[in-house]
Amino acid sequence: MVKKDAQLMQKENIFKNSNYYRLLVIVLAVTFLLLSINSASGFYENTNTSVLQNSSLVPATRSSHLIEVDLSHENAIFVQESIVFSVSLNVSEIPDNLAINVPGSAEIDSFQRVEMMGTGSEPINYTRDGDILYFDDSKRLQESSLPAIYEIRYVIKDNAAISYRSFSKVLHSSEQVFYPIGRLTVAVSHPEGVHVHLTNEIGNAIKADTVETNVNIVTFAWNNPDIAALTVNTHSPVEQSSDVNVPVAFLFLLAFGAVVVVVYMLYSKRKGNAGIRELEDQYESLLTVILQIEDDHKSKILSDKEFLSLHKKYKSQAMDIKKKIDSLQK
After folding, report:
1. Which of 3, 224, 261, 323 is geometrically suited to a Cys-Cys bond with 47, CB 3.0 to 4.6 A?
2. Is the overall model pTM greater than 0.85, yes or no?
3. Are 58 and 41 in contact (CB under 8 A)?
């Protein structure tokens, strides 16, 4: 369990480069706005048609979407998203409600609108339905010629080892959350010596248009990305024996876990006994990972020390979840 006082200290130190990234978002958004003025359909002409085949029906777009993920803290993942919404020029009515996907286990810390001209910020009222936040800011979109930055911060409790964890983000989940993205940036803060890689909704590696590394922050960026969901994975370099490629096993486990998480987020129901179903899915996933770890140990892909450490951790997590399931079913 994450202690509240520790969380407050971490939040004060999180995303030290947020002002830099906010300026980056503003520059990208203004650039997009100017391009829109010169060519009303420019965004759609340059966006991958497989994602925007029904672009004429899309009420709004995200000219810029920045996701900052801090994986350097024990027991929790801190995330800040900065989104610039622009009303589509192809529709006559401004949408009453906009929507944002967040992980179902996310605890929302703050949600605000920041004006690009530096005139201040204002909290956003929202309603939450599972992993979707709905909010109405149509009045602001109608009254101003400049788009605004919508910033949301949230925390995800995670007891996994810092060097062996993942964060999944759904970008397009359904017709309810379908806003084409002009520029997507994912900035990941990570501990020293930890590698970061991205996978998509089916577990395949994602290649960014650009990748920048600065000390313990790696930044991935895309123009007009055709990505429905992504998972940020971390792993530490592992010493290899002369005849066994150990990192391959770790990467396989990470990719498998990413697929399980994303599939669950996309297809699980949010009502009725969703709480028990979510725990059952997590339990089954952990059992599968435990079996894979045992197989890798038998195949000598994992050493005895690595096997005992991983097996103990995931077995403990599975037992805790099983107790919660039994308690809810009583």
Report:
1. 224
2. no
3. no
